[in-house]
Design a protein that fits this description.
homodimer, mainly alpha, two-stranded antiparallel ribbon, 9 helices, about 5% strand
Chain lengths: ~200, ~200
DNA sequence: CGCATATTATTGTCCGACAATCCGACAGGC
DNA sequence: GCCTGTCGGATTGTCGGACAATAATATGCG
């Protein structure tokens, strides 16, 4: 009959307030956040409370720290931070490697199409270079995996669509360990990947 | 020439420690976390420090609270929490609606294929029902958007691949507001979506 | 055994404190 | 003129303790 009336602890309200300001571009990227004491003063809460709010934003990638720096800056989530969260979620959802592989297979043609329709010489060169690197390095197992990842990333960036770039990351991250095993164990894997890459480049 | 030597504040080390235990299924889903005081005792840090660590895990969706509850439980990131993070990242990456649309277009055929190869009568029925609901409700703008989302979600679940399910969510979330506008403004949008859905169902 | 009630435990928030260290300014030497 | 060393202030990380509100649990009663 009645909705539970929403109560939110202060640390949540603070973090929401800051998050909104960031999303509405009110706090711009690269800008330094006010100091904790100052935030505490403005929100009229204790510094401990502010700190809890900051930790939340920090872990969603909206706030970051410059290397060796002390103060917090507004950042946008990097590919890595988004990828980390997503791949973490996928591992907890009992995602099998075949699922990841299937997803990558399913998505790549679409990405390739976008990339093709929007290609630039530079992007194409980078893509071809990645393919050549993979094909050229027959011996080294770990580098081969990196080369495959590079190829996918180059493709994503060639599509000039941030969605594809961001989606690629977590899938690759999950795939990498198994891909290494596959390349070692399945003799024809290399050749198949090579032709697939050539096909996409063409 | 030299790597920066890694120092991690205590609240980070604590949160990492707990996160690891969760990812390695040492702390199982649904299990209640020890109390803050107990964690502080075990890690030999102050409760405030533990709380900062908990806020981080909370916002990455690894810890949650039962409705109206006080203690924290181990949870796995829901579709919503993952989607929220991703769509937030996308908005900050200046993603335009066309990008989202393009991505959805590119991904759906692949999903449809997986779903088809693995279809069950129940999933197929659900998919068809969603398509019928959309086709049947010509007047209502907001419900139409929901129906489209339902169709995509049904398709994702029919594929029985958690990757697709998780990827769908953030894209839909970003698309929804604009989709409403499009349906209002572009007369042939409805018809196009209808035939696309029918095509996929077939 | 089910339900109302009293106890306890736990969280949310506050305060104050202090060491470490980053930052900016400033002076001195090559 | 630029690099280095020094210094004071500002800021963060961490701590200890405190207390109100309330969820969780035990207790008693019909």
């Amino acid at each position: 009959m009645f909705e539970p009336l929403g109560y939110a602890p202060a640390y949540l309200r603070v973090s929401e307030a800051i998050r909104e300001r960031i999303l509405r571009r009110d706090l711009k990227e690269g800008q330094a956040l006010p100091t904790e004491t100052e935030l505490a003063r403005q929100f009229e809460v204790n510094r401990s409370t502010v700190r809890e709010a900051l930790r939340k934003l920090e872990s969603s990638g909206l706030l970051g720290r410059r290397a060796g720096g002390k103060r917090l800056y507004v950042t946008r989530p990097t590919r890595e931070s988004v990828g980390g969260g997503l791949s973490q979620a996928l591992t907890l959802h009992e995602t099998r490697v075949v699922d990841v592989w299937e997803a990558l297979q399913a998505v790549q043609p679409g990405i390739a199409q976008s990339a093709a329709s929007r290609r630039t010489p530079a992007a194409l060169a980078r893509l071809a270079a990645a393919a050549r690197r993979f094909a050229g390095r027959r011996a080294d197992r770990d580098h081969a995996v990196e080369d495959v990842a590079d190829f996918f990333n180059a493709l994503g960036e060639a599509s000039d669509n941030p969605v594809f770039v961001l989606l690629n990351e977590p899938l690759l991250r999950l795939l990498k360990p198994s891909l290494a095993v596959i390349i070692d164990r399945v003799p024809q894997a290399r050749a198949r990947i090579e032709t697939a890459q050539k096909h996409i480049v063409d």
